Amino acid sequence: MSGLTLQNVTKQFGTFTAVKNVELTVPHGTFVCLLGPSGCGKTTLMRMVAGLDLPTGGAIKLDGKDITNVPTHKRDLGMVFQSLALFPHLTVGENIAYSLRIRGVGKEEQKKRVDELLSMIHLSGYADRPVAKLSGGQRQRVAIARALAISPKLFLLDEPLSALDAKLREAMQVELRQLQQRLGITTIVVTHDQREAMTMADTVVVMSGGEIRQAAAPVEIYRRPADTFVADFIGMTNLIDFNADGSGASVLGASIPGLAVPAGLKSGIISIRPEDVHLTAPGNAPVTGTVTFVRDLGGTIETFVEAGGKQLVAVSMPNARPDVSVGQSVGVQLNPGDCVVLKS
Amino acid sequence: MRREAPQKLTDYGPLVFPAGMLITFFVVPFATMIAVSFFKRNPSGFYTPDFVFENYARFLSLFFGKVLGFSLFLAVTVAICCIVLAVPFTYLLSRAKRRTQVLWLVALLSILSLSEVIIGFAWSTLFSRTAGITNLLVMLGILDQPVALNPSFGAVLTAMTYQALPYTVLVLYPALVRLDPTLTEAARTLGASPIKSFFTVVVPALRNTIVATLIMVFIFALGSYLLPQILGRPQHWTLSVLITDQAIYQSNMPFAAAMAVFLVLVTLGLVALTVIAGRKGEAA
């Protein structure tokens, strides 16, 4: 099949297992984000795809061909490093043309391709500048253009936007996604920024402790997290313990009618997103709590409520601003359809 | 951190000590030597103060020209050999494990503790017919009988390269350690084999360091006067050997001084040329 397939890929450094039995299929032309906290093995996984580290077990296949032991320079990749790794002794144009020069492409053709790529990254006329004279965002674009010069089979980016300031980063995320869609190139991005992952990816792969916790579309990851780690790592959430008997489930001492719990599960955790927590007058909802803090951010309002010894967060939009103040008693409504049941 | 330019005379205070040392131990002796090079030699005694050019005039002969040419050639060859050996070696060393690095650096530093005399005689033993390395080749069946490898140009070159190599490695090491390892990784992802990435990224990125090291080894090798005598034939003697000979055995200080001054001038000229060539290369 076309695309990238990882089969049971494992990497050990001495006794430390950085990546554990990873199974992943990336169909041709999709944009995948490897997302996780630092040290979760996402960069190691990408380095193995690039061939910069060799897996201790498992196989990596590209378009059906086993490339596990193919050296990096024969994999036809494009990779953008966190440090960008632009060659300081070469000009912008020479940096971009490097992969073409190595492959013995003629000077005329090199120049044509460099001009093409420079106009794609909106830096036409910069070919003769030294890379040291560029701004952070410009260097970023040059690194991307350099990686795309040979039209690679795989486009890999390791924390590509982490060095940019917040505003530029957001703009580059959109630009990168648009570029990827235009070129239809199979792309893998390593990031620890979930917003970045949600913005760009077709598939978000959440990793922790060297393992894949969940691989799914961004909305799916957000709405239907596979476990408490994913629920907690992606966006804000409320994780609440529940107890179940045969007839129904109870949360924070109140029963939630209609909450579907897998048969036989006695206790666990439910995840409910703050925007699904609705505040009403006390008595109108099964759970009652006390408002401890209100954070009005203008665009959204976060209300912190203590209920049953647990801190809950409710987020509402300005047009549905809850009329509450600190110390006030409120009813907390949890709709069973918004709760995701997770094993504890 | 940006420092302010000195404002008052007292701001130059910290410079007094180094300046004093430089004047006492470098400027004064060098000036003395320049002065002596214009003195007149007294055949019965030492020399008498004078201002004559005959010391320089005597130097402008085919014989001394050849010696000067050979000295420069030898020093350049040693410098190139050292760079060719040391750059790949230091590159691999800088990517090795910490322990391996320390072991190699200690071994290299221990070579520095050897005097030139010991290095010379050690190599002359290794190159000898009776106890040298050719006996090993005979044992391995590569040679029929042991041969003497010295005195020869190869023997001089080997020993001088051996002596200068630790300096070369130690000068290159910090620059190579600082070199961002992702640069070569980036080159590999862009399609360059490890060897190609070494020559297209590591070497060009370190060009200035390499040129500086080349100059350092060149000057270092130019001053060598023991090894050519121990391991070479008279035609392998460098200008430094002749200077020593004139100064110590022939008691002709003015002529020795003239040769030394000339050698310094030629060296400075070559270094300046290298630097200018380097600047031009950078601008292009």
UniProtKB/TrEMBL annotation, chain A:
Similarity comment: family membership: Belongs to the ABC transporter superfamily.
Residues of the ABC transporter domain: 4-234
One Pfam family this sequence matches: TOBE_2
Signal peptide: none
SMART domains xrefs: AAA
Protein name: ABC transporter ATP-binding protein
InterPro entries from the UniProt entry: AAA+_ATPase, ABC_SmlMolc_Importer, ABC_transporter-like_ATP-bd, ABC_transporter-like_CS, Mo/tungstate-bd_C_term_dom, P-loop_NTPase, Transp-assoc_OB_typ2
Domain of life: Bacteria
Keywords: ATP-binding, Nucleotide-binding, Transport
GO molecular function, a single term: ATP binding
TrEMBL record, chain B:
Main location: membrane
Subcellular location: Cell membrane
This protein's name: ABC transporter permease
Cell membrane among keywords: yes
Taxonomic source organism: Shinella curvata
Classification of source organism: Bacteria, Pseudomonadati, Pseudomonadota, Alphaproteobacteria, Hyphomicrobiales
Family: Belongs to the binding-protein-dependent transport system permease family. CysTW subfamily.
Alphabetically ordered keywords of this record: Cell membrane, Membrane, Transmembrane, Transmembrane helix, Transport
Pfam families, per database record: BPD_transp_1
Top-level taxon in the UniProt lineage: Bacteria
Membrane-topology annotation of the record: Multi-pass membrane protein
CDD domains assigned to the protein according to its UniProt record, in alphabetical order: TM_PBP2
InterPro entries documented for this protein: MetI-like, MetI-like_sf
Domain ABC transmembrane type-1: 68-274
Stretches that traverse the bilayer: 12-39, 59-90, 102-123, 153-177, 198-227, 255-278
